Amino acid sequence: xxxxxxxxxxxxxxxxATIGFFDGVHRGHxxxxxxxxxxxxxxxxxxxxxxxxxxxxxxxxxxKTTKLLTLLIERFYxxxxxxxxxxxxxxxxxxxxxxxxxxxIQFLKKKFGLxxxxxxxxxxxxxxxxxxxxxxxxxxxxxxxxxxVNHFTLSxxxxxxxxxxxxxxxxxxxxxxxxxxxxxxxxxxxxxxKRQLQNSIIELDLTVDNLKLLPRRxxxxxxxxxxxxYYKCVLDIPDDRDIEDVPNSxxxxxxxxxxxxxxxxxxxxxxxxxxxxxxxxNFLTEGIDSIDNQLVIDREWIFGN
Length: 305
Hints:
The chain is α/β, with parallel strands linked by helices. It has helices at 27-42, 56-60, 72-79, 94-97, 101-112, 132-141, 162-170, 174-181, 291-304, and strands at residues 2-4, 15-19, 46-52, 86-90, 114-120, 145-149, 185-197, 201-209, 218-226, 229-237, 249-257, 270-280.
């Protein structure tokens, strides 16, 4: 996939494009992106995803907290897995915010060879927030073909959305979130400190970008991959008032079972955590007086299940 900016151009090529923020790159997004690649191949077009560096809500409501399922680098990494030819990455700034839907479509047609536009059931864009009936009229005036894709639903007919995934994480329902993502919810973090505890357990002190949505405070079963091996962990997400955070980030703690401390030496300063499910509210259960004793109990329970 080739990444483009507003200053780029696509010349002498016909493009089928779709527009969205794709936060989480969940199963609905995945279905959409696969359909885009299939349509491009079917009609001998180049496929293009149009997305933004910053969430539009962060532009319109800068003082309102908007947490993301995927940070920019995570989103780029995931989008790169879908055999899309181009990814046009735009800053959602005053210039973009003032464009009408028609002006935005004309911009894509003029600079990026837009021939076909693929939209979802609830898509809207432009300062006039045009939706499918208006988008269709604009495309007809611009001699463009419009292709509408229906919502992707789970077997229980539940629709998937980034908003609903955020709600699940807010209430610690990680399993439902993971079902909609088709993977474990990932947290990319930076290692601030590490120490070897008893019983071959490593403790990592980690920081996470403040824009990243963390599940509700509590203790979770998680896993990490090191050298193509997966290791089970206990993830502790404390209340953000319980610990002094590094500016623009939050602290979390990870306890890894069966990994030697020097195995992380090649791991740079970053680690990706896959959150599996919620275990409990507080790190220490009733009657347990130390981290080491609690982790011994956790290890026996995790590997016994």
